[in-house]
Amino acid sequence: METQNLILFLVIGVVAGFLAGKIMKGGGFGLVGDLVLGVIGAFVGGWVFGMLGLLPVGILGTLIAATVGAMLLLFVIRLIKKA
User: Fold this and answer.
1) Taking the C-alpha atoms of 76, 55, 66 and 59 in order, what is their torsion angle to the nearest 10 degrees?
2) What is the DSSP letter of 27?
């Protein structure tokens, strides 16, 4: 992975984590936790969208996929945290 692609991936993940933290209100994990969650959620979103046969196109599509992945991950973590 080239340096530019890595930096872009991290930036999109951070923005996705921030957006997911704002969309999924409740007891969050703080700013840093939500940002790390966004980077991991970018992987999850890419995997989920790939399994559905939907490939994100461009930066906006990648941001949407990463945000959805971060939201899914945040939802699952909150379910586990309650149990």
Assistant:
1) -170
2) S
